[in-house]
## 1
Amino acid sequence: MAKVHEITVWARGVIMDKEGRDVINIFAQAAQMEGKFAQAFDNYEDLPDRVLVTVRKYVRLSDEEIEHKYVYTNDKPEVVVITEATIVKGIDILRGMEKGGTLIINTNRSIDDMLKLIPNANLLGTVATVDADAITGVRTVDFSGSEGGVDTSGIGKGIASPMTGAIAKVTGMIKKENLAKIVSDVSGMERGYNEVKIKKLG
Amino acid sequence: MAKELPGYGTIDVPKDRVVPFGAVTPAPVCQQDLFQTSNWRIVRPVKDDEKCTRCLICYLSCPDACWVYKEEEDVMEWVNNFCKGCQICIQECPSGALTAVPELDFPDGVARLDKPF
């Protein structure tokens, strides 16, 4: 069986639930356009209907069909995406990560300031920050699209577009051209792709 | 003290454990440490003791009882482990003694959990 790449996205309940869900959906769709196999999971274990609670979204990528469909949690995430920077303080976000993983944070603070708040940062191989809040303005507070509803605001409206642009540049798992066909905010995605700051560690 | 319970036979209840019917027993804990919610917050309220008039409106408006009046020192005490950063106290404070400061400005003060719950 080919290697399954696991990507975990952390977001805040209700106020950023749509952003987290858009990141995994855009990522999985862009990977499928390249002929990869992808799974995206949302809203299972964290009860996202509580304001500000930390919630997880999961993506899996593989070159072959992913056979396990019943376990949706990522036990060994390769890439961790933080859509709200304060989450690094309150949760062990790198739990289960093997050495040399990637961390992408939405923040305007410096990479060294963020690394001070992560006690197990020696697991990381790459850290990247992108100021997605500044690129798109305020975050979307939108409940449409959840629980099977129709997403009226468009996929990738808000901070999800620059976040996915940053993920495409840092990980190289998806292509920018495919992202541009999916997201509604193409200029935000391009700015996220160009403005992401990357630091390689040890 | 041996007690006859219908269907269960006789059980021995220690004298200090016997409570009369309808009695109120004290709660086992004052703070439920298994449900710490401090990692929910993005900003935290920071108080200015000079502006604070001890009117207790923050105590009344906090949904999680995170403001406590300390009578001995005559100050309001903030409960770090359970404040979710909802900013209701900041909105309600009549003397403007509370300000919202981003949580990342402080090096510590949040319970770091392995998992969300």
Note: The mean pLDDT of chain A is 88.
## 2
Amino acid sequence: MSYASHADLGGKRGCGAVVPEREGELFHEAWEPRALALTLAMGATGAWNLDMSRAARETLPDYAELIYYRIWLAALEKLLRERGLVLPDEIAAGHSLRSAPPIERVLAAADVARTLATGTPTQRPATASARFSVGQRVRMRDGPFPHHTRLPSYAWRKRGSIERLHGMHVFADAHARGDGEQPQWLYTVSFDGVELWADASARGVTISIDAWEPYLEPA
Amino acid sequence: MDLRVRALETVLAEKGYVDPAALDALVDTYQTKVGPRNGAKVVARAWTDPAFREWLLGDATAAIGSLGFSGRQGEHMVAVENTPSRHHLVVCTLCSCYPWPVLGLPPTWYKSAPYRSRVVRDPRGVLAEFGVTLPEGTEIRVLDSTAEIRYLVIPQRPAGSQGLGEEALAALVTRDSMIGAGLALAPTAAR
């Protein structure tokens, strides 16, 4: 089975210069705030989880050509389509054309503030002891992976050090596949820039990622 | 795109999956309530209150929560402090993870390929595009938000800001400085 993420951009060349933007410039098209709100409101229904959303976005074939809210919108339509909640002919018609399969919950206006202020914590009670400790040398697993993962390709096979432990968290790789939460220990792992890149610009630079225990092996 | 989004909203509302009033409330939240001024208050408090600073560096989620900022995309916060010898810079190379309760919605550049691709490889070059040059020998630490931990950078308190109150200090704290892509403003530049 092949799985291709188009969103794993760390270290990629030829992406051009950064264009700074002034504070308060939130949206550039009138539809963008509605696309944001639809994404958040449908996310709150429980029809899918955040990791499934990320997987839906990063596998869009035209990811690189789309601006960010287009990515969100395309992924939203894909998630709705895959679950049979909204089909393309309904979007084309601008109306619901068939009965609505049930969903877990609907976000009411009165609940927006509380829902946002609560969020969706991913830490879970520790049910196992951590395999690694602060300062320990580790090596990251090698890819590619046939599923959604949060281990960026620039860190594959690289050696780093455990910098921080964050407790056990919902494991994105399993959660995105619909295989449940399968909480794993989460660590911040730091790498010397020259371990990751041959470039002179990497000297004096430390790069860290947050990595679940299954991504790590002792170095 | 306007028509397509409106069509999707109509379909979702007709099916009873979304409440249009909730959509209005979501947009209003990020347009008027939750944004980088929240984070600026956190930083100004850290600059003026050593006990709060310690708390923030030790348990950022609780310290930030004590000022009323919590929740979506900030469930698990870590604060890092920029000093004369160490500069932190935050990115999400895999998508657009960003600490919403303190900074609001991410700017376009944060979500775009140039920043995400280059900042882990050439952070000094990227900083130069923001007009920031750090002293030679400053250690740069790039934090890639690859899980559900969200990072807030506490920028260095600018010279000449002694004696300013929390509100005046917060006005010096820019969004970019809390990502690490900028520095806090000098007191004269803020006016």
Note: The mean pLDDT of chain B is 96.
